[in-house]
Design goal:
The protein is of the alpha+beta class. It has one domain: GSPII I/J protein-like (Pantoate--beta-alanine Ligase, Chain: A,domain 2), CATH 3.30.1300.30. 39% of the residues lie in helices and 29% in strands. It has a four-stranded antiparallel β-sheet with strand order 1-2-3-4, covered by helices on one side. The radius of gyration is 28 Å and the shape is rod-shaped. The chain starts with 9 loop residues before the first helix and ends in an 8-residue tail after the last strand.
Length: 132
């Protein structure tokens, strides 16, 4: 009698499952890495928007910022952001350089933040402002 059973042996099934498991683990790692990258890019994008908003408000509001460093908190996209504004004099007395540094606000606001973006802009002294 001839044995014509068609199918896979137990060993072949186990090898196939092992290959599938390795491939599935690699796919999971890639997906996890992609998710982390996406979250990082989202945070950096929002941080840059916060910096742009701060600089635009300073320019549009005709503020003449004092030289030095200020720190504050801003809310955007259901998150709190820590903002550092560093103002410096320039060779032109009518213009100041403003660096806006933004990161996710730490739980304890006095802690250092991870800086996500740095935006530099220049503000011209408004007509009525003094040259302090």
């Amino acid at each position: 009698m001839k044995n014509n059973h068609k199918g896979f042996t137990l060993l072949e099934v186990l090898v196939a499952l092992a290959v599938f498991a390795v491939a599935a683990m690699a796919l999971m790692k890639v997906s996890e890495s992609q998710l982390r990258l996406s979250q990082t890019l989202e945070e950096k994008t929002f941080a840059h928007w916060v910096a742009l908003n701060m600089l635009t408000e300073m320019q549009a509001g005709q503020d003449w910022p004092s030289i030095g460093e200020q720190t504050g908190k801003v809310s955007m996209a259901s998150r709190d952001w820590k903002v550092k504004i560093k103002t410096q004099a320039t060779p032109m007395t009518r213009v100041r350089r403003v660096d806006v540094i933004v990161g996710v606000a730490p739980k304890d606001f006095t802690d250092e933040m991870e800086e996500l973006t740095l935006l530099t802009g220049f503000i011209e002294r408004p007509a009525g402002a003094s040259l302090e």
